[in-house]
TrEMBL record:
GO terms for biological process: fatty acid beta-oxidation. GO terms for molecular function: (3S)-3-hydroxyacyl-CoA dehydrogenase (NAD+) activity; enoyl-CoA hydratase activity; isomerase activity; NAD+ binding. Residues 297-473 form the 3-hydroxyacyl-CoA dehydrogenase NAD binding domain. The lineage of its organism: Bacteria, Pseudomonadati, Pseudomonadota, Alphaproteobacteria, Rhodobacterales. Residues 478-573, 607-691 form the 3-hydroxyacyl-CoA dehydrogenase C-terminal domain. The keyword NAD applies. Pathway: Lipid metabolism; fatty acid beta-oxidation. This is Enoyl-CoA hydratase/isomerase/3-hydroxyacyl-CoA dehydrogenase. Keywords: Fatty acid metabolism, Isomerase, Lipid degradation, Lipid metabolism, Lyase, Multifunctional enzyme, NAD, Oxidoreductase, Peroxisome. CDD domains: crotonase-like. It is found in: Peroxisome. It comes from the Bacteria.
Amino acid sequence: MAESNSTSEAVSYGYEGDVALVCVDNPPVNATGVAVRAGLQDAFRKINEEGKAKAIALYCAGRTFIAGADIREFGQPPKAPGLTEVLSEMEQSAIPTVSIIHGTALGGGYETALATHARVGMKGAKFGLPEVLLGILPGAGGTQRLPRLSGIAYALDIAVSGRHVPVEEGVEKGAIDRVVEAGDPREIAIAMGQEVVAGTLPTRRTDQLQAQADDAAVQQTLEMVQKKNPHLINLAECVKAIAASTKPIDEGLAAEREHFLVCMNSPQRSGLIHAFFGERAVSNIPEAKGETRSLDKIGVIGGGTMGSGITTSCLMAGIPVRLIEVQQEGLDRGVATITKNLDGALSRGKMTSDKRDAALAMLEPSLNMEDLSDVDLVIEAVFEKMEIKKDIFGKLNTICKPGAILASNTSYLDIDKIAATTDRPQDVLGLHFFSPAHVMRLLEIVQGEKTAPDALATGFALAKKLKKVGVLAQVCDGFIGNRILGHYGKVISYLVLDGASPAEVDTALENFGMAMGPHKVGDLAGLDIGYMTRQRRKEEGLPADERYGGDIADRICEREGYGRKTGKGYYLYETGAPVPNPAVDEIIDEVRAEKGITPKEFTEQEIVDRYMTAFISEATRVVEDGTAKRPIDVDMVFLFGYGFPRFRGGPLHYADTIGAAELVRRIEEYAKEDPNYWQVPPLLRKMADDGTTFADMNS
Ligand code: CAA
């Protein structure tokens, strides 16, 4: 304990002259779990009762000030005392109080600071109300106290964006009272407490201030959030709670509670918090934690879209890259793409011009593969042909230094076959990036049969350096993401064959939360990619009992074009906004007539149900056969690599909201039409029988 008297296992207090010091020490981030709440209440009560102090300074031990409520308690039965009541009591302290902020004061942490009578931030510290990112709203007085200090418009900006704000900005807006040089929080707490005693650091109770109504800001923000993401009901609830800050504090806090509970009981809260923990859980595995090899210099083979994106990502992380191409033209194109990517990052404010120049200076383009002799890791990103990859890995085997990691960015090929062309399969693994590789955060880390533990752990270390979410996958056709995509992609074509229009499917899935329906995505990415894959599959011979769903897409490619890049696809793009292409309707009618299909109507819900049931079926198989370690790994693949709506938590988190028994019932129903495609995964049947969930498998 940092101070001599402890009021709980997480809070202690003591005295330095006239100043009472209250210390919160609750690793890792001093979240306001029950021990902190009870401890704070007790400490402030006791200091007031003891009556020895003229100021109370609150500070935190460890890496940060209080970073928020303890999210792990959400969804559990509440434990008294609640943070709101503790903060109201603290605010009424007869002795003036001050908070010392280092690291981050977020959510319930900043709300704690708002309830003290002054806020001092150390240089470099940040504050914010990021609750909306977790599907809720500031529920411990933040919506009432910040508007009283900084006005309704600023409170709306902070609470609706959820951004982490530098304390320097907070001073300009009245949200922070003073910024001091960074130092030991306890020393600063003593100094600031003494200033409070001396009257050189003014204090006042936030609840005694009045917030001025700002109907224009409220209305404008409400319209903006409802337009931007109608699914996130918490954004509108947050705006309404802030609008209530013109009322007396007790009424405002009661309004905040009502709006908070609407969000707390919503499925989106559970989905977004699943996403928060999932992002961290994927690398919280033994495979990611062992010893790692160096990552001081990386080689990338291939200057196409993927190779350039991977190179950009490494350069942005400060890792020098040697980029290899076979011809000068390809190399020049690669360097031009990388330069364009970095310029884009500069114009979006992601990096400074100095950093952009430094990044480019770390790029060494070369036409000579021998130049890879001293790199620590090579990422091959060439055309998806096994023979080409085998040839490259055979060469790398002789060129690269012992212990160098040899990685392939293949999106579906067998890593073990690639590794077999070397006499160091322990150094080979898959590093599957997603396009655009310098933007998309997912990195599938594919473990080959013989991949060494330290090579695998280095894959995770790379993900961390690149600020990506590394997910462990085992070898199979398409790994986690593309294998599941390959399966549910078929149900999209079956829906259209059987009666839905491409636009109906797109609208249904967009209303479900996808940023873009699958046909619009196809038009954007280019329909030729799927066309080539289908032709290859046809040449290889489709399984006899598989229903072929690609006729419509094939004819669109052959007669209309490949989507946006040729001006026509499922949609026409003459006016910019996509308009359904009437020629596609004719193709659909033609194919249905040839196949003797009488089209039926699908409601939006039926479209979503079939799509998600197909999605979940294959995702279950991926967990069942061990391609993914846990359901949460599958969820993160889709959130970070495929734009699955974050507020739904991921396909298998969503599956738990439906329940295994209902999913089995649906599959059996659909199987009456196509028993080959619709098969109940044994794991799902077992879950239905046992009454278990995917969440059970995550713990
Ligand atoms: N509750 C419980 N655990 C938390 C937590 C929280 N609020 N915030 C972080 N953690 C945990 C993480 O899960 C992680 O645990 P593991 O090591 O077991 O994986 C650990 O703390 C460290 O977190 P990070 O890996 O994220 O560390 P970082 O240094 O990269 O980032 C941080 C630190 C900026 C505080 C970041 O963790 C963060 O943004 N946390 C969430 C902050 C937040 O959203 N606060 C609002 C909470 S809701 C609220 O306060 C409601 C209210 O109105 C009362």
